[in-house]
Amino acid sequence: MTGRRRTRSSSLPALPRPVRATALAVGAVALCASLTAACGVVPGATGGSGDDPVKVMTWAPQDTDATNKPGMPAMARAYAKWVNAHGGIDGRRLEVLTCNDHNDGVGAAKCARRAAAENVVAVVGSYSQFGDSYLAPLEGAGIPYIGGYGVTNDEFTGAMSYPVNGGQPALLAGLGKALAAECGRVALVRPDSIAGDELPTMLDSGLRAGGHRDAGDQLAAEDATEYGGQAERALRYATGDPARKGCVVPALGDRTDTFMDSFRRARADFPDVRTATVLGSVDQTVIDATGGATGPYEGAYITGWYPVASDPRWDAMKKVINEEAFGDNRIDPADAGVQTTWIAYTVLKAVLEKIGDREVSADTVRHTLDDGLRVSTGGLTPVLHWPYEGRLAAVGFPRLVNADVTLQVVRGGRLVAARADTGGTHGAADLTSTLEHADVP
User: Fold this and answer.
1) Angle between the 336-355 and 315-324 helix axes, to the nearest 10 degrees?
2) CA angle 269, 271, 273 (to 5 degrees)
3) How far apart are the C-alpha atoms of 190 and 176, rounded to whole Å?
């Protein structure tokens, strides 16, 4: 890997690093009025107090060659329409600005600076791989970041970040723990990028917790059009222990289905190999497209943050989608990004209700979150609250407060809950203890 150019373009996170100084961000924010971004706005006046609507922003990449999350800003718009049609939040109308970061660090910074220029009170339910580009401008402007997707570990270190799930670290640790009892050799196929370099750490933490050896690490370009060589190498590694069935774990974001096309062809000589992955790399649409019950995912374990989409706890979200976004094919109720955006706006609603008739600003939103607010999400997550430092601060995740992971399995071509005794709440396993022992360099 020496001398190879590495990029930051990945749908998966890098290892945590120390919180970066934000002194330069203050100057950057001062210039934000002269910068523009490809952002859209739900019509409405500016402001956040009195009779003015509360203004927030949701961003995500769209129309790119890598990972795209158009359902997240679309869900945010639908939520705002529904809230406003029902009298607002505590009598206040909600105004949602949206922004496309184009899977680019410059684009992410422009979105953040636009948020500062527009005086939004929070960035809510968003996705971007470039935490090192957007968090500094947000912190310089004092704007809280509520419910990011968990795609970068920066989201679990920033003092103004309020994550609602455990991101890829929790998903991979949970998957490793589940596979430890089910698999012989485990091959991880992941992006050949800075972010992808750190994925084995979390998968291995779960495997070790189950008394298993570390996974074999297979590199792959995240924008490749075929993965025949990677699939064959992963299969050969996974079948190295004749006493137990091997497992292949593709973690390539939106390119996972491309990998599985190659995997299906290469698998003919390795019929006993099992597959497993994390939500965000695979959803029901991908399972259907790869053959359903006769496809390569049948029997696969898949870890997620939330209950399966058929769970009645999602009924309130589905009602909003049906009323305000019926026929909008960008919004899939089974998409983890859409679900995360819903939960993030649930947090925002709780904050605004707590503020009541006081002024709504970025400062009051942030202080309300910091002052011990506890938010119920109707059982979709544990009760959420954000202490100054959580239990995982020692391993570089001070803001990671929800390490719950649900274990799902593909049966009959459908993604369903795995009926196992997970030992957690809400049908989920709490991976906090596993992550506490992760071998983070």
Assistant:
1) 90
2) 110
3) 14
Assessment of whether the complete model's pTM goes beyond 0.85: no
Rounded Cα–Cα distance for residues 56 and 118 (Å): 9
From the number of C-beta atoms within 10 Å of its C-beta (0-12, 13-18, 19+), residue 161 rates as buried
The DSSP string of 125-183 is: S---S-HHHHHHHHHHHT--EE---S-SGGGGT-TTEE-SS-HHHHHHHHHHHHHHTT-
Phi, psi of 42 (to 5 degrees): -70, 125
Position of tokens 């019950």? Answer: 293
Amino acid identity for residue 417 in this structure: A
- Cβ atoms of residues 146 and 401 within 8 Å: no
Domain 168-304+404-436 part of CATH 2.60.40.10? no
C-alpha closest to that of 390 among 170, 136, 205, 173: 170
The separation between the first and the last C-alpha atoms of the chain, rounded to the nearest angstrom, is 19
- Residue 291 to residue 298: CA distance in whole angstroms: 9
Superfamily of chain region 23-165+312-395: Response regulator (3.40.50.2300)
Indicate the domain borders of the chain: 23-165+312-395, 168-304+404-436
Q: What is the mean pLDDT of each run of 10 residues along the chain (441 residues)?
A: 39 39 40 40 43 94 87 98 96 97 95 98 96 95 96 90 94 93 94 81 92 94 90 94 91 85 87 86 80 88 91 97 94 92 98 96 98 96 93 91 93 82 59 83 51
Question: Would you say 90 and 352 are in contact if contact means Cβ atoms under 8 Å apart?
Answer: yes
- Dig out the tokens for 150 from the structure: 């968990």
Instruction: Please state the length of the chain.
Output: 441
